[in-house]
Amino acid sequence: MEIVIGYALGAFVLVLFFISVVKMISSRLNKELNKKIDSLEKRVEDLESK
Fold this sequence. Notes:
Elements: H1 2-49
């Protein structure tokens, strides 16, 4: 019985680890996308002012 509980806890920890990795990757992608959007907005403003 203890072996089953150990495997269940190990699987749960692995799932939490993968969730945290996915969240970290998505937050990095969000930051990069926000930077690109900001630079595009600045370009559009510059073009509109010309």
